[in-house]
Amino acid sequence: MSLTFPLRFLAAASLAAASLFAQATDLTVAYQTTVDPAKVAQADGSYEKATKANIDWRKFDNGADIIAAIASGDVQIGYLGSSPLTAAITRKVPVETFLIATQIGAAEALVVRDGSGIKTPQDLIGKKIAVPFVSTGHYSLLAALKHWNIDPSKVTVLNLAPPAIIAAWKRGDIDATYVWDPALGVAKENGKVLITSAELAQFGAPTFDAWIVRKDFAQKHPEIVTAFAKVTLDAYAQYRKDPQAWLADASNIDKLVKLSGAKSSDIPLLLQGNVFPLAADQVVSLGAPTTQAITNTAAFLKEQGKVEAVLPDYAPYVSAQYITR
């Protein structure tokens, strides 16, 4: 048999593959160490398969840094909390909220050190509390102090990123921290939870995490954003269908530990402490409820001097179209 046809066929196939690769979109995604079912999909490469994009996953310690990266154009899609999101869109950073990642519950909490002398909320006065500024933890801490009628000026609030919080906690430099894992797990080892974000939500200060996208990227690649949302929601559906069976799969736990830094023994509680909305819930949430929550958060941040003004309408920064497409 002549080798001419096979060689020409292979050459054509190689050229076609090279062309497809060249057309693949480069996408940089900012993620954090939160514990959620979609991290299994991240570890498995499911996002790359669904979006057909070359994804560069970058870990960040807080939402403020993610917003800076998105504003500069270095990152196209990012995961952050409602407080830094609100601060960003109040300053008119061109982004859209296309998915509610989680309604935060026990996965974020205020922990006080054993031996610090803090037995009640009033004992926080004069103490050092570490929290990443403009984070959901920061918002929740200020909301907790307000709920307890404690003047924030009577507490020393230190702006530290989670890795720095871990180091400061281990040195004994701080008395308390409002944070998430893995720093939350470290603090719990020799501390007690004073209040969680789930309890604060009942007091009228709910927080959530969200996936956001640069508007220019979404307009150019709506199919990528839609596929990204679908992978996330599929992961949520798999977990919520049978949480116990999902947790019984050791590979799921291993992947969460690898990407979050949380202890395997803490994973069940952290997952159960949050709500991961399914597609039908997203369609409802990504409208008036989220817009109102952002508006309320903006009013609180303005009251605390964290933003200069509250926008008249936050609807342009929230969209369910990538869920309903």
From TrEMBL:
Output one GO BP term. Answer: alkanesulfonate transmembrane transport
Q: Where is the Solute-binding protein family 3/N-terminal domain?
A: 26-250
Q: Where in the cell is it found?
A: Periplasm
Which key words are in the record? Answer: Signal
| CC annotations in GO | ATP-binding cassette (ABC) transporter complex; periplasmic space
CDD domains, per this entry?
PBP2_taurine (cd13560)
Q: Which SMART domains match?
A: PBPb
Family to which this protein belongs: Belongs to the bacterial solute-binding protein SsuA/TauA family.
Name the UniProt record assigns to this protein:
Taurine ABC transporter substrate-binding protein
Species this protein is from: Pseudomonas marvdashtae
